Amino acid sequence: MNFKFNQVIFNLVKTTNFWQANYLILRQLKHFKFITTVAISCTLIGAFFEGITVSLIASFLQSLTNPNEPPIQTGISWFDGVILATKATASVRVYRLAAVILIAIWLRSLLHYWGQLYTGLAQCHLSNRIRKLIFEQLQSLSLSYYSKIHSGEPLNSITREVNELKQVFNLTAKIIAQGSTLLAYVISLFWLSWQLSLVAVLMFSLLSVGLSTLIARVREASFAIPKANGQLTSVAIEFINGIRTVQASATQDFERRRFYRATNQVMAAETQVKTASALVQPLAEGVSSTVLIVIVVGAFALLIETGQIRAASLLTFMFVLFRMIPLISQINHSRENLSRFQGSIGNIKELLRRENKTYLTNGGIPFAKLKHSIEFVAADFGYNPHELVLKNINLAIAKGQTTALVGASGAGKTTLVDLITRFYDPIKGQVLIDGIALSESEINSLRRQMGIVSQDTFIFNFWGV
Fold first, then answer.
1. Which of 83-87, 189-193, 455-459 has the lowest mean pLDDT?
2. Which of 138, 296, 382, 449 is deepest in the core (most CB within 10 A)?
3. What CA–CA distance (Å, rounded) separates 189 from 266?
4. In the beta sheet, which residues pair with residue 359?
């Protein structure tokens, strides 16, 4: 029964926008549950101590400013008696509250340290896992995938975009921490004065709605940045790998124009995001400060003069509001930064998707050696299914027979050989070795029996192997 209930809750969570937007991160947290649990627990408990500190400060100020008035009470007998010292003298109450406030502050700081530490560890584990997932995905994909993309795009994903994913996790953790602290502040405000709190919540809610529209613009603009960065990385890789050819053919001006065009596209995409995002924090701070002044003036005119709120409570209320304004600004800034990285997150999710990509299914028959022949039976192939490079190829090559493939550039010679090595599978027809379809043979055992001379030379660095 408990299992079914948990499954229902999990299914409900999966339908939320938060899960759908961040499932790539959330699914990976199960692989380092302890680290994630400690990070979240320390964050939430730290927020609890933040709220406790506020209530202690209210009692502390009351004891300092009006020691003869009845002390502020929460209604929780043990808390009022042991912590707030409501039954003690004013001087004893001041000393006890000062000591308890210091203890609460240091506990909150210690929890904040642990939360930051374990959040950082979770970031490292997450980025390490995502890089490995991307690598395994790139290893398992058919070469037809690589013929459809720029060479710099996967490199950009495995380096720059994974680093941005770390920032997304850090920002998400910050929003959770800041949101928990904000919730503690809001509860404290309602405890001090529900009238002023309702006004504050209403005004800040209107501010949040306005900023959400601006943040949505930042999010939409962010999708152009990873695309432009991928194009720039591709151009840079092609230039560096082909520098000998570039200089030999005196095409430096052409390459310069390509590179300048690519880097200008990156600048244009980043400028569009910066233009929208630069307005978020100043606008939030300006409106928040205005709200604070309006609340303080209104409280003085309507509540203090009529005796509905004590001066110490108003001072504490102002203290909490002053703490809330930069916190709200930080949350909005984190939301804006989070929106900027949605393009990178979308690229990584798209790269890791399996349902829209072609994979070579490994066969189960080990290949020992060629015994009779290689045959093409009505084989069709094209990098684009609508534009065939090879059409209805029927060819038999006997063991020991020397065969030369002759034709113009682009006629399909390399493609024909790539079908034998099973870098690709035919769209139609079959390739047989000794009467067995290549798709039924174990890929690595097949390729180990082949001598392949590549047209390209790569020098692999075996550092750390």
1. 455-459
2. 382
3. 46
4. 141
**What's the Rg (C-alpha) of the chain?**
33
Q: Determine if residue 185 is left, alpha or beta; phi over 0 gives left, psi from -120 to 50 gives alpha, anything else beta.
A: alpha
- What tokens does 94 get? 């001041």
Domains of the chain (ranges, CATH numbers): 2-352 (1.20.1560.10), 373-448 (3.40.50.300)
pTM: 0.69
Q: Which among 67, 45, 7 is positioned nearest to 312, based on CA atoms?
A: 67
Mean pLDDT of 409-428: 83
What does residue 393 show for φ and ψ, rounded to 5 degrees? -85, 125
Amino acid at 159: T
**Could you say which DSSP state residue 74 is in?**
-
Helix axes 252-277, 224-241, angle to 10 degrees: 160
Give residues with Cβ within 8 angstroms of 5, minimum separation 6: none
Phi/psi class of residue 400: alpha, beta or left (left: φ > 0; alpha: ψ in -120 to 50)? Answer: left
Contact in structure between 119 and 171 (CB atoms under 8 Å): no
Q: How confident is the model at residue 2 (pLDDT cuts 50, 70, 90)?
A: very low
Alpha helices in 66-89, H assignment, sequence order: 77-78
Burial 74-111 (b: 16+ CB within 10 A, else e): eeeeeebeebbbbebeeeebbebbeebbeebeebbeeb
Question: Cα–Cα distance between 363 and 377 in angstroms, integer?
Answer: 19
The tens digit of pLDDT for each residue in 111-121 reads: 888 988 998 89
Q: Specify the 3-state DSSP secondary structure of 85.
A: coil
State whether residue 393 is helix, strand or coil. strand
- Write the single-letter amino acid at 441: S
Cβ–Cβ under 8 Å, residues 72 and 79: no
Tokens of 357: 């990509």
pLDDT at 364: 80
